[in-house]
Design brief:
Radius of gyration: 17 Å
CATH class of the largest domain: Mainly Alpha
Number of domains: 3
CATH topology of the largest domain: DNA polymerase, domain 1
CATH architecture of the largest domain: Orthogonal Bundle
Strand order of the largest sheet: 1-2-3-5-4
Low-confidence stretches: 141-149
Strand content: 15-25%
Structural class: alpha+beta
CATH superfamily of the largest domain: 5' to 3' exonuclease, C-terminal subdomain
Distance between the termini: 24 Å
Number of helices: 10
Mean pLDDT: 83
Length: about 200
């Protein structure tokens, strides 16, 4: 599982990035917010990464900072939001503004993001409002201690288990049963693996 990339930005376009790390070029999808914040091609960059594994592909999603990745993981927990749609939501406005809008339950403002209809906006608000209303997330500080950190650890643990060959639904169930707030990623994965092999 790739969690971070540091290398030379080889290509930069609306379709994504190519980052050269020790001679290997990694294709990375990023939000428009991250794309705008990155330097021109040829510069050194560091990206936090979410690895998405499917039967037909492995995709990397990159983030400029931890807050954006945390919000991405929160959005991914919403029914009907795949990684591409979650990235599109992040592209719609700065992360701080997105958190304020969701935290305040402003469904109408959320619908101004291309591709987000009323039903989807309502689901996002219902499922993410509490976590995104956390002042630390709004102010750009650390991720929320309870739902944010737990959601991020769970998402990374599920991704790791899928990479090891477990089915996604089995991995999600195992991670949900064996994780709690404040638990490290390594502990979550270890406990989930023990549960799956029991």
């Amino acid at each position: 599982m790739i969690a971070r990339l540091e290398g030379t930005l080889v290509e930069k376009s609306a379709d994504g990035l190519v980052v050269d790390v020790a001679g290997v070029g990694y294709a990375v999808h990023v939000s428009l917010q991250t794309l705008a914040a990155l330097p021109s091609a040829g510069a050194r960059v560091t990206l936090l990464v979410h690895t998405e594994v499917r039967e037909d592909a492995i995709e990397l999603f990159g983030f400029e900072h931890a807050r954006e990745r945390t919000v991405f993981h929160l959005l991914r927990k919403v029914k009907g939001l795949g990684p591409r749609i979650s990235l599109a939501v992040l592209s719609g406005m700065p992360v701080a503004d997105l958190c304020r809008i969701i935290g305040s339950g402003d469904v109408a403002r959320l619908q101004t993001i291309p591709g987000v209809g009323r039903k989807l906006a309502e689901r996002i608000v219902v499922e993410c409002r509490e976590a995104m209303g956390d002042p630390r997330l709004l102010d750009g500080g650390a991720a929320p201690a309870a739902p944010g950190s737990l959601a991020e650890a769970q998402a990374e643990a599920v991704s790791a288990l899928v990479n090891l060959g477990y089915k996604r639904n089995e991995a999600e169930d195992a991670v949900r049963k064996h994780s709690k707030p404040g638990t490290s990623l390594e502990t979550v994965i270890r406990a989930a693996l023990q549960g799956l092999s029991a």
